[in-house]
Write a sequence for this structure.
């Protein structure tokens, strides 16, 4: 079977939802972050798929978008890990289900 | 008109951020001047913005990805003002906290630049990057405090924010896939040309966009981070969050939903979604605010409820023409009013909380006796949040409700006004504690000059525009008229 | 200019008072007094320069205020035969309130400032001819009231103040929706244009709009079952605030019903007239019965206000010139009488520090002047002829009897009930064996106390024996309105 | 006015100037103002001011009377507009005719004499100034009531006399019984006033006027439905019954004796209580037009007369005997009006005012000497107080209807009218006449005959007691008190000698719009029989209380159930106050409503607040502080929104 | 995308990527999860190549595998005592259910939509075109991205400074 746009999109969607599932279920903050990275990857895959397949006046914008997402992902990861370290310094854990100082 | 000119305000703010960083390194002894450098950058941005006012009112640059119109101008003023107030309100806190100051101010300015860029962004990529430019420094700022609560707030905010922006991105990707472009008017054109057959996909994309923006707006059900982050983050940062990113989210939402997703078969959907979310946000936000004992949490829930009021306007803009103008200008008016009011409240809270070392509402007892100025300012802002004249909050609510009535959303207005009653209960509860409670200590204290300036400015705005709302209203209306064309 | 002066003078005076230095704190009352005197004089002057027979509004000031496309508000004020007497009532009671507050020493600056802002907003409500301006002043009154009750009150003052505010906001929430729908249908907030407009295709059925507005005003009036804020607010408010509350704030409700509900939506008013009359009569009786059970002097008078305000609604329900005139007159009469009553109770409370009827008794011996005043106020309150209340009551009855015989017959039994509770109260508070507990207390003695009591009592008598003074002003306006209603 | 033009037979119109008529009201009013404002603290002058004011009114009243007599009882009316409200126009004016003139004279004369008396009786009372002020105000109101030319104005003064009655009954307000009696009087009469108010509303709505003449004409013309007229008449009568203490609203009057005795003499014997009779007489054509209403009036009057008389039989308090006697006599007058004996009723009102005032003042004089009204503590006062004794006897004889005293003539006319109208009414009237004679002379014998039983010792610890003198050694009252007694004795004897048929009757009848035979002339059979009945009553009293052929206590024992019923006032007070007002109304109905108000009406509102807080607390549980749960919210939101859109607007 | 080669590549890459992502989900050890994550990144990079986005594939490898994964590793190492446990919270089940629902929705719309596709890779999708786009139309985002990275860097440094360094600051 020749893979078409649906196939790539399906992989993207599944990857996205896997990432979402991971970020919703993992206890460790770094695990959650991994889920987020997977979601961003899925978005990237989707964008590149569209760039490749969709009839578009300006197909390069999908690629551009991906470049920025990559950048932002890096920045986000850096900040996330820095925050994780900061939390760890205070609490000696980065398990998000134990981060519940703030609650009503 | 070249790009540099159009982006002058953002550039000057970013330059100020750089200057602050460098100045700190070069002249470590002159730290007390840093905030004023930052303010100078904001002033430059504001002046630059002003320089456009006389000139044309609609310019697109960079192949249509960025637009300069009065809408952007309006928000740039708002963001400059908000940032300036936050900086003024931060001075004491930053001095006390003892951390490096230049970075703090630089990050605040970066956020401001991101917000300003959002106001003019008209392209999904630019919107995304501007949104992140304002968000990522905010995550850092939320975790800026040295205590565990602040770090926790920062991490929570970041993780949820990342999930939300992933959802937003996926929605944008789908939108791009259907239309083949990222530029808003082109998206609209593509949808007009035959988008109805893609309705399912568009609805999914729209839903994801609502989730992404809804997170920033802090509306139900994307609001749950709000109270935790407000409570944990340093109070000046919470103030910034409550006003800045919320306003920006609405600024961009009006553009995206009206300019890109304005097709009839979509607008009827999203306006109903916004209406329902508005009703739920107001109700839940207010209900949950009632029992809060921490003033920052209370303000957090109240900001959820207020976001519901903004959304009333957003629900009313589905039809082009006068309805759109009323609804959108209502949101803008509300943004400005809310900026004055909520910032004023937060400034007072910053000053009081630092002094009494507590955020508990019960500890605000007798504030009227220990610090009449702060108590009066806070009370006045709370009255404005309730929507009682002569405050700007009254006009904002009135205007938005008026727009909703004209959009045939009477049921939403009924819910909205009834929610005002609930909100009066807890806002006035704070006033009651401050004015009637017996203070723990009889010792009077005064606000620092910077706080005094910030509070006076915001409270004066609340009062002045409460009596003469006309300039603000016409500014808001002028701002949205360009979109309606 | 007169009307603007009446609105803004107290506001400016309030600002001046707030800016007084600490050491001149006790002088605040003099500023307030001077302001109140000037206001009173100004309103009296306006009253006598008013031409009752000229059609339309007089002393009109109209300038654009907010003009944004379809959101078009004006600063539009003016008076007619309905509002002018109420304005005079307000200034008069403001003066009385300032005078009875002369002994306030706790934060006098804030107190008098609040009082003046309250007066300013109430006058604003009465003279506004733009719906939004009306609504603005309506809401504006809340904050000073809240502070006045919650800071200078007694008892469960915070609860009462909050209850007052929440009730009013809830009512005005309904009102706001109604106003917006109406204004949208007519594309204006201008009451003159609204009155001339024909409402077709409103967003809500016009009957619902009427109901929304009515609820807002009924809370203020107050009408059973929306009345329970009143006893609490009254019993815990300081004297002057009780005077203002009973004297003028309740009247905002009646005024609103006439000015908005009835004037703007005559057809709906016709559909609902029997309900209004019925509810009015019911309020009269219900209030009367419950008043009989009260053991707190102020709560007693508060519930009696519920009963008396029912008459206003009964008169309005008749939708005739006589009934409407009677209702207006009843508002004025009740304002003066209940104002006087609260002044007397306040003077008594200031001395005895109790409002519990069981603890009082025989005060006529220790405080003959206060007792006389209370008996006078009580007699006026139970509708004794030759006093203002009687004229009002009878006019209302006469106006409504033609259409709603049974409602009126029910309501007149309220006359007996009012005699019952007033006399019961007088018997236990003023008369009866002397209680030596109160032996050391002084009678009314300060000049301001004398002035307030004599002034209000004089007005009550004046309106009772020379009703034409006000009737001639009210009646042409009401006749015009009634003619519109019949059309 | 309109009517007068259409009736040439009453061509003569009194020429009296309206300023005089207003001045009649104005003089006592001026006295009141003077006393209330300036003379409260100057008792000596206050009394004289009152005497002066009322005296002037009295003189003017006589002037008016003679003027009206000159005009053969024609009607003069001066009306102007008072205020208008829409369709409603309320007039204000004065009207003078025969009825008015007679009433004016009665009121001012009695009032004047009572003021004179009061200067002696009230000597030393701390409320001396207040007393005269109230009295002046009362006189003003009463005169205003009499002079009023329209129902609205009448209603005003009607209520004002009620106020004065209230203030004067409660004059010694420190006595709980006085305060309670005042309240009772006001409320009970107000219940009657409801009827009057309803009648006022009815007549304005249906006839469109308040004017007395116009209403008389309206009722007589037959243009209104008779049921309407009956309703109107009954409304009027309800008001009259309240004021004139007719059954079942009579319960306030005996209690009203808590007031100072001159007050009882003026208000609760001579004037105010007669206002009800005056009102019914004023609107006599209305009752003529409605036989049903007239029958009600007659029978209520009859029942009142006999009930009150039976209660008077067993009283031991001198003043209460007089009070019940007053109720009984008022019933008599109502009986007469109901039997269409218009002139007789007014004539009896006229004579009764004098002798009943005389009797009350006499009882006050006794009290002045003995510090009590309890007849069981008196006796033998004839020797000590001859003037009081003899005037009291004159009054009693007149009341009993002994020829040729005033009461004989008027009572006789009433019995005659009753005889002609309905024999049952006459029979009741006769029984009452017997009882009247009996209880009056029982009172005289107990009070003035036999031996003195010591009076009531003075309680010197009571600061409110101002009794001076020694009850153990009673003495005659001062001249200020004796003179009015003597003065009142004259009309008590002679007031009946006006040539009834030729003068009083025509004069009074001229006040009605239609000439007619309202009342009848003397008839010897009735006169003789009634005299015999009265003498029998006196004789019975003599036999029991002087000769003591029968022991009074054994009579009481024989008729114990009756005596109990009489003494307990037919249990009406217990029924009204104890059962109805206190238990059913106050503790039942009002309490129920109050509970509803507090628990339900207010409770719902507070409940909403509590529900809000409870909901808030529940919702708080959602916010657990764990970031994943927040993320779940976001994801769930996306799904819900999508599904909602799809469901609401299917693809 | 004709031919057997690309089809085979697609299916292999799909299997690799999704299984690797599943591995992130099920790994109990955080370090194993990182390794699976890197594998996923590589798989996605393969997709990019398959979709004629060579430059992006390279960037993906450099940034994700080279930078982000390394960052994650550092973070894990910097938080030694928090354990290497990659377990689930008590919210795992509802989270997974919601993700499944969302996946169902996405798959539904992806397959429901009648895509308007082109057969061959459109022209001008090379690195040059990308560079031109980045420096003309999207030059602002491009510049902003650098600012963003700088800000993130500054922030990250500030947040991770040790208390001793903080104390030094206070002295200056």
């Amino acid at each position: 079977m020749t893979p078409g746009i649906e196939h790539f999109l399906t992989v993207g969607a599944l990857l996205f939802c896997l990432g979402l599932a991971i970020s919703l279920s993992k206890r460790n903050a770094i695990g959650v972050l991994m889920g987020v990275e997977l979601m961003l990857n899925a978005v990237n895959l989707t964008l590149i798929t569209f760039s490749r397949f969709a009839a578009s006046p300006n197909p390069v914008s999908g690629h551009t978008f991906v470049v920025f997402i990559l950048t932002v992902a890096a920045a986000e990861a850096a900040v996330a890990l820095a925050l994780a370290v900061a939390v760890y310094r205070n609490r000696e854990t980065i398990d998000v289900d134990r981060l519940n100082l703030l609650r009503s | 008109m070249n790009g540099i000119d159009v982006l002058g305000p953002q550039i000057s703010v970013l330059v100020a951020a750089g200057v602050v960083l460098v100045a700190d390194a070069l002249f470590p002894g002159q730290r007390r001047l840093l905030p004023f450098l930052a303010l100078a950058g904001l002033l430059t941005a504001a002046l630059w913005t002003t320089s456009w006012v006389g000139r044309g009112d609609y310019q697109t640059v960079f192949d249509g990805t960025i637009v300069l119109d009065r809408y952007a101008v309006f928000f740039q003023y708002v963001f400059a003002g908000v940032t300036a107030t936050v900086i003024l309100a931060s001075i004491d806190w930053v001095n006390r906290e003892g951390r490096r100051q230049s970075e703090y101010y630089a990050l605040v300015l970066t956020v401001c630049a991101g917000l300003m860029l959002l106001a003019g962004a008209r392209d999904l990529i630019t919107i995304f990057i501007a949104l992140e430019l304002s968000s990522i420094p905010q995550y850092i700022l939320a975790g800026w405090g040295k205590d565990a609560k602040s770090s926790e707030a920062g991490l929570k905010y970041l993780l949820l924010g990342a999930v939300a922006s992933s959802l937003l991105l996926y929605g944008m990707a789908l939108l791009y896939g259907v239309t083949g472009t990222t530029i808003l008017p082109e998206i609209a054109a593509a949808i007009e040309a035959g988008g109805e057959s893609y309705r399912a996909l568009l609805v999914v994309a729209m839903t994801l966009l609502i989730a992404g923006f809804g997170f920033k707006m802090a509306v139900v059900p994307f609001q749950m981070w709000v109270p935790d982050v407000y409570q944990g983050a340093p109070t000046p940062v919470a103030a910034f969050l409550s006003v800045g990113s919320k306003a920006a989210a609405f600024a961009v939402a009006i553009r995206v939903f009206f300019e890109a997703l304005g097709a009839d078969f979509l607008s009827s959907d999203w306006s109903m979604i916004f209406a329902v979310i508005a009703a739920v946000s107001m109700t839940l936000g207010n209900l949950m605010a009632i029992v809060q004992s921490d003033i920052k949490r209370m303000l957090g829930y109240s900001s959820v409820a207020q976001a519901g009021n903004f959304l009333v306007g957003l629900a009313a803009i589905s039809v082009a023409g006068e309805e759109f103008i009323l609804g959108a200008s209502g949101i803008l008016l509300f943004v400005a009013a809310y900026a004055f009011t909520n910032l004023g409240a937060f400034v007072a809270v910053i000053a009081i909380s630092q002094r009494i070392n507590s955020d508990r509402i019960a500890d605000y007892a007798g504030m009227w006796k220990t610090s009449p100025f702060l108590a009066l300012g806070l009370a006045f802002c709370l009255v404005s949040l309730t929507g009682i004249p002569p405050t700007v909050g009254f006009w904002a609510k009135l205007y938005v409700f008026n727009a909703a009535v004209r959009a045939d959303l009477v049921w939403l207005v009924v819910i909205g006004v009834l929610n005002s009653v609930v909100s009066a209960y807890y806002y006035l509860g704070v006033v009651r504690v401050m004015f009637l409670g017996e203070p723990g200590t009889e010792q009077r204290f005064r606000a620092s000059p910077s706080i005094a300036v910030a509070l006076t400015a915001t409270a004066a705005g609340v009062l002045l525009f409460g009596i003469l709302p006309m300039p603000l209203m016409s500014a808001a209306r002028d701002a949205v008229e360009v979109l309606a064309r | 200019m007169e009307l603007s002066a009446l609105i803004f003078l107290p506001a400016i005076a309030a600002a001046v008072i707030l800016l007084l230095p600490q050491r001149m704190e006790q002088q605040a009352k003099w500023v307030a007094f001077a302001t109140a005197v000037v206001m009173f004089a100004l309103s009296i002057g306006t009253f006598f320069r008013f031409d009752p027979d000229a059609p339309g509004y007089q002393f009109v000031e109209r300038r654009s205020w907010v003009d944004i496309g379809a959101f078009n508000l004006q600063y539009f004020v003016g008076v007619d035969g309905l509002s002018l007497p109420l304005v005079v009532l307000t200034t008069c009671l403001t003066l009385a309130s300032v005078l009875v507050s002369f002994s306030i020493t706790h934060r006098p600056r804030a107190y008098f400032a609040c009082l003046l802002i309250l007066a300013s907003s109430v006058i604003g409500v009465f003279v506004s001819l733009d719906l939004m301006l009306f609504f603005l002043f309506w809401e504006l009154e809340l904050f000073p009231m809240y502070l006045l009750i919650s800071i200078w009150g007694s008892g469960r003052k915070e609860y009462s103040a909050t209850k007052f505010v929440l009730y009013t906001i809830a009512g005005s929430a309904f009102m706001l929706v109604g106003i917006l729908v109406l204004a949208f249908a007519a594309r204006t907030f201008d009451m003159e244009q609204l009155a001339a407009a024909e409402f077709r295709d409103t967003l809500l059925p016009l009957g619902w709009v009427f109901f929304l507005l009515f609820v807002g005003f009924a809370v203020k009036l107050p009408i059973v079952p929306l009345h329970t804020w009143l006893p609490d607010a009254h019993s815990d408010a300081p004297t002057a605030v009780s005077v203002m509350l009973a004297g003028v704030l309740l009247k905002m409700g009646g005024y609103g019903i006439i000015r908005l509900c009835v004037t703007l939506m005559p057809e709906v008013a016709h559909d609902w007239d029997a309900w209004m009359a019925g509810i009015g009569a019911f309020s009269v009786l219900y209030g009367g019965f419950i008043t009989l059970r009260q053991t707190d002097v102020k709560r007693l008078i508060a519930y009696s206000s519920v009963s008396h305000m029912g008459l206003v609604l009964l008169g309005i329900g008749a939708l005739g010139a006589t009934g409407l005139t009677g209702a207006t007159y009843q508002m004025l009469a009740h304002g003066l009488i209940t104002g006087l009553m609260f002044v007397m109770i306040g003077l008594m409370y200031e001395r005895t520090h109790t409002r519990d009827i069981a603890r009082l008794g025989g005060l006529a011996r220790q405080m003959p002047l206060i007792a006389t005043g209370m008996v006078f106020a009580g007699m006026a309150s139970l509708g004794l002829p030759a006093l203002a209340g009687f004229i009002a009551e009878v006019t209302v009855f006469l106006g409504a009897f033609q259409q709603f015989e049974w409602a009126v017959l029910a309501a007149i039994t309220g006359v007996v009930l009012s005699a019952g509770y007033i006399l019961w109260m007088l018997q236990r508070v003023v008369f009866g064996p002397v209680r030596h507990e109160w032996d050391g207390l002084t009678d009314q003695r300060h000049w301001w106390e004398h002035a307030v009591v004599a002034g209000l009592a004089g007005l009550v008598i004046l309106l009772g024996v020379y009703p034409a003074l006000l009737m001639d002003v009210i009646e042409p306006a009401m006749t015009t309105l009634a003619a519109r209603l019949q059309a | 006015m309109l009517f007068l033009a259409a009736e040439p037979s009453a061509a003569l119109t009194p020429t009296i100037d309206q300023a005089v008529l207003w001045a009649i009201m104005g003089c006592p009013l001026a006295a009141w103002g003077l006393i209330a404002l300036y003379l409260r603290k100057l008792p000596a002058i206050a009394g004289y001011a009152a005497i002066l004011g009322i005296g002037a009114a009295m003189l003017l009243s006589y002037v008016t009377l003679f003027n009206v007599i000159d005009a053969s009882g024609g009607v003069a009316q001066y009306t102007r507009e008072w205020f208008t409200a829409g369709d409603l126009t309320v007039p204000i004016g004065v009207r003078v005719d025969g009825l008015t003139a007679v009433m004016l004279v009665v009121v001012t004369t009695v009032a004047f004499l009572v003021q004179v008396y009061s200067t002696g009786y009230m000597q030393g009372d701390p409320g001396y100034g207040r007393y005269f002020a109230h009295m002046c105000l009362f006189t003003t109101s009463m005169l205003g009531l009499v002079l009023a030319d329209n129902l609205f104005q009448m209603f005003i003064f009607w209520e004002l006399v009620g106020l004065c009655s209230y203030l004067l009954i409660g004059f010694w307000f420190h006595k709980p019984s006085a305060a309670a009696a005042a309240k009772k009087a006001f409320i009970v009469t107000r219940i009657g006033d409801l009827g009057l108010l309803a009648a006022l509303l009815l007549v304005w709505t249906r006839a469109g006027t308040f004017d007395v003449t116009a209403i008389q004409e309206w009722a007589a013309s037959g243009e209104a439905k008779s049921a309407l007229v009956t309703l109107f008449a009954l409304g009027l009568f309800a008001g009259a019954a309240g004021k004139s203490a007719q059954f079942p609203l009579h319960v306030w009057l005996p209690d009203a004796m808590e007031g100072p005795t001159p007050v009882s003499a003026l208000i609760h014997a001579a004037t105010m209580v007669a206002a009800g009779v005056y009102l019914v007489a004023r609107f006599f054509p209305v009752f003529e037009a409605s036989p049903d209403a007239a029958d009600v009036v007659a029978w209520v009057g009859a029942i009142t007369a006999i009930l009150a008389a039976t209660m008077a039989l067993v009283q031991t308090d001198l003043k209460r005997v007089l009070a019940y006697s007053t109720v009984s006599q008022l019933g008599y007058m109502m009986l007469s009006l109901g039997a269409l004996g218009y002139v007789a009723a007014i004539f009896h009102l006229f004579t009764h005012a004098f002798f009943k005032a005389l009797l009350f003042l006499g009882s006050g004089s006794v009290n002045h000497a003995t510090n009590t009204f309890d007849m069981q503590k008196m006796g033998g006062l004839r020797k000590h107080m001859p003037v009081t004794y003899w005037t009291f006897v004159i009054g009693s004889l007149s009341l009993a209807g002994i020829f040729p005293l005033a009461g004989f003539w008027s009572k006789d006319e009433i019995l005659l009218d009753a005889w002609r109208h309905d024999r049952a009414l006459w029979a009741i009237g006769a029984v009452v006449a017997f009882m009247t004679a009996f209880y009056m002379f029982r009172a005289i014998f107990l009070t003035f005959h036999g031996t003195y039983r010591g009076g009531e010792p003075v309680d010197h610890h009571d600061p409110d007691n101002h009794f001076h003198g020694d009850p153990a050694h009673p003495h005659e009252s001062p001249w200020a008190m004796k003179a009015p007694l003597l003065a009142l004795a004259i009309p008590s004897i002679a007031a009946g000698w006006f040539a009834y048929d030729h003068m009083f009757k025509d004069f009074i009848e001229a006040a009605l719009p239609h000439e007619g035979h309202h009342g009848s002339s003397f008839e010897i059979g009735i006169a003789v029989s009634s005299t015999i009945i009265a003498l029998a009553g006196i004789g019975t009293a003599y036999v029991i209380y002087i000769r003591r052929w029968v022991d009074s206590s054994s009579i009481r024992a024989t008729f114990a159930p009756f005596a109990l019923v009489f003494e307990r006032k037919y249990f009406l007070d217990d029924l009204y106050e104890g059962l109805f007002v206190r238990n059913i109304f106050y503790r039942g109905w009002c309490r129920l409503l109050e509970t509803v108000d507090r628990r339900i009406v207010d409770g719902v509102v507070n409940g909403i607040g509590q529900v809000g807080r409870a909901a808030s607390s529940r919702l708080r549980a959602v916010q657990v502080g764990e970031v994943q749960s927040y993320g779940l919210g976001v994801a769930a939101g996306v799904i819900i929104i999508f599904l909602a859109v799809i469901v609401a607007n299917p693809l | 995308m004709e031919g057997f080669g690309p089809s085979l590549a697609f299916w292999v890459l799909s299997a690799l990527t999704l299984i690797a992502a599943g591995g992130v989900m099920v790994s109990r050890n955080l370090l194993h999860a990182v390794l699976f994550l890197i594998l996923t990144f590589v798989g996605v990079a393969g997709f990019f190549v398959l979709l004629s986005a060579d430059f992006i594939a390279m960037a993906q490898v450099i940034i994700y595998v080279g930078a982000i994964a390394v960052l994650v590793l550092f973070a894990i190492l910097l938080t030694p005592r928090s354990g290497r446990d990659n377990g689930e919270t008590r919210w795992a089940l509802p989270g997974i259910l919601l993700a499944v629902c969302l996946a169902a929705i996405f798959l539904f719309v992806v397959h429901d939509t009648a895509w308007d596709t082109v057969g061959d890779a459109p022209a001008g999708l090379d690195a040059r075109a990308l560079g031109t786009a980045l420096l003309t139309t999207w030059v602002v985002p491009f510049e902003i991205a650098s600012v963003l990275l700088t800000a993130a860097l500054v922030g990250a440094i500030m947040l991770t400074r040790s208390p001793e360094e903080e104390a030094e600051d206070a002295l200056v």
Residues 382 and 415 of chain C are 7 Å apart (CA to CA).
